[in-house]
User: Fold this.
Amino acid sequence: MRSLVAVDAPSVWTPHDFPDEASWSFDLSPDDQHAVIAYAQGGDRADLGRHFGAAAARWADLLTNGPGFVRLRRFPIDALIEAQIEHAYLAWVPCWGSPSGRTATPTSSRISATNG
Assistant:
């Protein structure tokens, strides 16, 4: 399969462009995981927002002014059913703001949430 973008185009990122993984990859703590689970199982979005307020602001800044992506590790997918995972994941979208001109893609596609 051929890429639609040349591998030397300015929009192509390589690991050498972002060597400090700690600046864009974050592990959710057990308290963070509990907040996500509580929201996913019917909790209030305001509670989720209060819990992640400062962190979400930092992540949004990275999306807008930093590399343009964030990875959240230890997202509690093993504790949730598929519909709850989707509900919890989509709760993050308002925190990230609107898509930037840099990528012209929905912001949620620039966020990776993993359980590992």
In short: The chain has one domain: 23-113. Residues 65 and 87 are 27 Å apart (CA to CA). Strands lie at 25-27, 70-73, 111-113.
